[in-house]
Amino acid sequence: MILKKIYEKLTLLGDRMAFVGEDSCTYRELGELAAGAVMMLRQIPESTPVILYGGKCAAMLGWMLGCTFAGLPYVPVDSRTPTGRLEIIQAEVGAGRIIDTRQIEIKKAALSDTSIVENVGRTVYVIMTSGSSGKPKGVAVSEANLDAFCDRYHHWMGDASVSLGHASFAFDLSVADIYPTLAGGGCLYSIPADMVENSTLMRDFVLASECERLVMTPSFARLLLTEPSFRKDRLSSLNSVFFCGEVLPAKTVLRLWERFPGLRIVNAYGPTECTVATHAIEITADMTDRVLPAGIADDSVFIENGEIILGGRQIALGYLGNLQSKAFFERDGKRFYRTGDRGRICGSLLYIDGRLDRQLKLQGYRIEPGEIEQVLLSLAGVSAAAVFALHDRTGMPRSLCSAVVCSGEIEALTDELKKRLPMYMIPTLHKLDKLPMNANGKCDYAKLEAAYGKQ
Predict the structure, then answer these.
(1) Segment holding 331, helix H or strand E
(2) Do residues 35 and 108 make contact, with C-beta atoms less than 8 angstroms apart?
(3) Contact in structure between 125 and 75 (CB atoms under 8 Å)
(4) SS3 breakdown of the chain: % helix, strand, coil, rounded to 5?
(5) Residue 276 φ then ψ, to 5°
(6) Are 345 and 304 in contact (CB under 8 A)?
(7) Mean pLDDT of the chain
(8) Interior CA angle at 358 toward 354 and 426, to 5°?
(9) Averaged over 160-184, what is the pLDDT?
């Protein structure tokens, strides 16, 4: 069990560095933080969700581990999330408590005074994702799901003494940063959010990490590649990259190999509902003249009416408050998840061909345009809204836009959106007298994308 392995490392590794982000801590210090969190959480009934509001700091990790040890599902919410959305999340998950990890100090305790609540069927964490209904939805991941993912990840990647990631702790890619690294006794470097917006600070942090592994989205790789110093002679320790969260273009792989000859690159696929990633494949040079595969197909994946269906031990418990969602289903006594991704299996390789609906990935974040439209329509003076993505030359989404029919000013609408949505979901707004319609009398999104994509 992954939690037991982490508990053992916290006990044994003492002054070995465990985490470096906004601050840092050793394994002993992280263990004391986790134990202190357990003590402070004792008044909360078991299985009650706890929202952890914070950034990439040792205290956030301490609270996360404390919740898992105490048998409480944690719901990580990034500290940049607006208060209005935080309140919606609390209502959706029925959280018993919101802990601002920046404000509530953990009173450290001895790890030996705590134990782990063991129940593989219990919910360990809840990741909030964008929902087409206009509200975020929480994916409940069990201890068994987490164990299954970590087993697969270790099979794909092995251990690393230093692993570096950029994902927010509220984004499920961070699970691939945190749990395998700590269970293997390695050090997790997590790039603070403010550094991502400062290329010099980010470059210095990455180079100083002397990381062996990078866990990232393709979008973040392209950001790193804008730095000339991101190359083998400046980061000779780097030997592997784990990609997940977006389609990986062959062009990105080739650029990485130019900078880091011999770099091992693993491309992975899987939605949040299936615990980070279910399938993966090591990319080789002979694959780069075409669309890259997303993984090696096995008996836990099949295609039905063009849609990728996933099964196996990583299928999450469901959506908190709606565990009977039609996306999750049983067949012959086994659980499956309808991904909504178009795909195909060629020989033993799994390929992703886009979406069956309007859902998109932007910088690794899963976004339902319908959720943003519903928020826009809830604002005073807005009578119609259409949210869409603009794409780069490779066909990857590069930004969000929205056409709105409204009586007010665009600037005021943007200000209101910032109170309700995270920054990665704020579109550039364009005011129109009316939305274009297609022959079926529905909004013509293709026409909007064509019009604004040329600007």
Answers:
(1) strand 328-331
(2) yes
(3) yes
(4) 30, 30, 40
(5) 70, -70
(6) no
(7) 94
(8) 115
(9) 97
The Cα 313–Cα 328 span in angstroms is: 13
Of the given ranges (90-94, 353-357, 381-385, 392-396), which has the lowest mean pLDDT? 392-396
Classify 259 as helix, strand or coil: helix
Distance (Å, whole) CA 406 – CA 316: 40
Q: How far apart are CA 392 and CA 398, in angstroms?
A: 6
| 143, 72 Cβ separation under 8 angstroms | no
Residues contacting 278, CB < 8 A, separation 6+ = 152, 269, 270, 295, 300, 301, 310, 312, 314
- Asked if 294 and 269 touch (Cβ cutoff 8 Å), the reply is yes
pLDDT at 446 over 80: yes
List the single range of 29-38, 267-276, 386-395 with lowest mean pLDDT: 386-395
Strand partners, 403: 386, 430
Residue 258 has pLDDT above 70, yes or no: yes
Helix (H) or strand (E) holding 258: helix 250-259
- Would you say residue 445 has pLDDT above 80? yes
Local structure of 425: helix, strand or coil = helix
User: What are residue 97's DSSP bridge partners?
Assistant: 50
According to CATH, the topology of domain 368-453 is GMP Synthetase; Chain A, domain 3 (3.30.300)
Neighbours of 370 (CB within 10 A): 17
Least confident range of 152-161, 204-213, 280-289, 315-324: 315-324
pLDDT category at 13 given cuts 50, 70, 90 is: very high
Going by C-alpha positions, the residue among 67, 60, 62, 75 that lies closest to residue 45 is 67
Task: Tell me whether the CATH fold assigned to 2-354 matches the one assigned to 368-453.
Answer: no
Rounded to whole angstroms, how far apart are CA atoms 20 and 24? Answer: 4
DSSP assignments along 104-158, one per residue? S------GGG------TTSEEEEEEE--TTSS-EEEEEEHHHHHHHHHHHHHHH-
- The reported pLDDT for the residue numbered 438 is 80
Write out the E strands in 5-86: 17-20, 24-26, 50-54, 74-78
> Where are the chain's structural domains?
2-354, 368-453
> Quick one: pLDDT band at residue 454, thresholds 50, 70, 90?
low
May I ask the CATH class of domain 2-354? Answer: alpha beta
Residue found under tokens 């700091």: 57
Q: Sign of dihedral through CA atoms 378, 380, 385, 387?
A: negative
Asked if 178 contacts 171 with a C-beta cutoff of 8 angstroms, the reply is no
Q: Which two tokens stand for residue 399?
A: 């930004």
Q: Which amino acid is at 58?
A: A
Q: Give the bridge partners for 242, in sequence order.
A: 215, 266
